[in-house]
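hey m, so remember when u said the tokens were messed up on ur end? i reran from scratch. heres the input so u can diff it against urs
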Amino acid sequence: MILMAQTTITIDGSIGPWQYSKQWMNQMLSKAGNGPVLLNISSLGGDIDHGLAMHDAIVNHGNVSVRLSGFVASAATVVASGAKTISMNSTAFFLIHKVSGWIDEYGFKNEDELKELIEKFTKEAEENKKIDLVIAKIYANRTGQKVQDIIDLMKKETWLTAEDAKEWGFIDEIIEMSGKSNDVPFAKVAMIEAAGLPPIPRISQNTTNDESNHVSSLAKSILDNVKTLLNSEKHIKMDRTKFKPLLNAVKVDDIELDKDGGCYFNASQLDMLNQAIEKAHKVEQERQDAVNARQAAESERDLFINAVNGIDESVHSAEGAEAKINALKEIVANIPGSTATGNNGGDSKEDAGVDWTKIDSLPHNKEADSVV
């Protein structure tokens, strides 16, 4: 059994029957099998029917991670929301909005025709409301936000930066991208406006912020140092012999690396690894319980020995348990009216040569016996 390498899928155009469709998504995920999938998305959206079906296909697969870049809007955000994890480039934008449909009604209308149109549009508005609610619930489940708050954001139709998207909970991670400017190319602006989407927030070339530049410079310095460390000879390369216990835990013979040197576990293998860790924890807990019990017994033994040694110096100086017992017997034997051995509570008349017949014949003992 070999660990499967990651499959990469890219959506960089319109979602719908003519480009990236639900049929296409099902085919791509089927080719990936149960292995991990990285889905790159840079799309302004499209057909919500296909978007919802693609979302569900990703959820059913269960092992898809999404990376957002460029401008991601509308149905594309619904598709992304089905992923296990979502990362977003720091230069990307994110937009959600309420669904819309094409209206083509022109010409003069009389009263009756207007009433028919009102009824038609009212019905269509109610249908759109149902779809909006389903989409809002998808976003709410993803973000942990209230459905009404999501619907209010959909009404605003505003572009979110990566920081905004993370704050809302739409994404899990921001990937910092290098470059001097986050400004949007004019060609891209024209495409977005032609699609009927809200205008993009633009960053003026003349705007300066010393603090922001300092933070960016510091972040770049840290990243450069990390890259240097990872690329240095000191970085530990994959050595399969060192990971035999791990491979045994997930029942694989070897690891298949992707082009970046990464390897991945499927859900079943992660479950086996988790069970192995739980078993190791249980064994460690049992060992610790045994150590604690032994320490408690030793403590109780020490208390008893200290108490016994405190009775007399002869007991304290005696070596070993048997010698201490003999010393105790000797002490008890020297106590007046007691005997170290054969003590049966004083009920026997065969004790230490006592003449019990003579004692019983005394008048006051006879009188006591008659009363009893």
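this time it looks ok to me. The first strand starts at residue 7 and ends at 11. if urs says something different then somethings off w ur setup not the seq
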